[in-house]
Description:
The chain contains 5 helices and no strands.
Amino acid sequence: xxxxxxxxxxxxxxxxxxxxxxxxxxxxxxxARNLAATCANxxxxxxxxxxxxxxxxAGVPAANITGLMAAYKAxxxxxxxxxxxxxxxxxxxxxxxxxxxxxxxKPAAKK
Length: 111
């Protein structure tokens, strides 16, 4: 009886942990989408910029985005207009979420 109760409690704990992880993952996706929405003003919806002067970010590897944001944050990109200021407004974890979200977006078809 004790073993059955222990197994039942272990199963319940595992199911609870999985549900919590699923909720946390959904929260991270929503947070990432919301943070990346601020990029849309210049880089287009979901990173699909349409202007010739702004780089699209959809599908760009997350490591490239985080590296560039770190360079902006450090002031190491010459000629940056506003990105150095924007980058300083995010934590490294937020930048990672944004980069992963944008990397997962499908680039728009080229015309």
